[in-house]
Each structure stands twice: as C-alpha cells, then as structure tokens.
Write a structure and sequence with these properties.
By secondary structure, the chain is mostly helical. The chain has 5 helices and no strands. The chain has one domain: c-terminal domain of poly(a) binding protein.
C-alpha cells in the first residue's frame, strides 16, 4: 500500500506560511524554507518589541515631562518627588499629554507639587 502524505494539509501549511511572509523581499516571500525562517524571526521581533515599546514610550513621556518641568523652573525628579509627597496619583502618560497640549494646567500642577 502506498504511503499517504496528506497533500491537502501540507499545502495548507505552506500556503499559510507564505501568506504570513507576504510583502517580504525576494525569496523571503516565495521560497518556503527561507520564508519559514523569516516569519519565525519576525515573530521573535514582534514578541520582543511589544515589550520594548512600553519602555520606549515611558522614556518619551519622561523626556516631555522633564522639558516642560524645566520650562516651569523645576527638574523632573523634583516634580515627581513633589507629586509623591502630595499623594497625587497621575501617571506619566497623562502628565506628558498635559505638558504638550495644555501648558497652563501643567504649570498649575507644577506649582501645586512644589509648594
């Protein structure tokens, strides 16, 4: 009896893999073995960078808060310390948004935190 290779499932697996590799450069989108490696590496980068994105945005928020705080005459660390002392729970994302879009409100927060 001949060996069955289940061509339907094999073709579906390869088709799904090549669909994931769509848009990759040259053989990375056409050759199954090369595409498999490219897709696997891409998924590794995606997993890693979902976590790295959180760190990157936190750095951005801190840089924006520091710049706005220095424009108001204090440093980032003094501002954060003042907010912690006054038990003001406002996260860095919102604080950075205020610093960029509403300078007057940010100035009030700085004034209240440093008194």
């Amino acid at each position: 009896m001949p060996r069955s290779k289940n061509k339907v499932a094999s073709r579906a697996r390869r088709k799904k893999l090549l669909q994931r590799a769509k848009g990759y450069f040259q053989g990375r989108s056409k050759i199954v073995t090369v595409a498999k490696h490219a897709v696997d590496k891409g998924l590794q980068y995606a997993y890693r960078d979902r976590r790295a994105k959180k760190r990157t945005f936190r750095q951005l928020w801190i840089a924006r808060i520091n710049a706005a705080a220095r424009a108001n005459g204090v440093t980032y660390s003094v501002l954060i310390h003042g907010l912690n002392q006054k038990n003001i729970d406002i996260n860095r994302k919102i604080l950075a948004d205020l610093a960029v879009n509403d300078g007057a409100a940010f100035a009030e927060i700085v004034k209240y935190a440093t008194n």
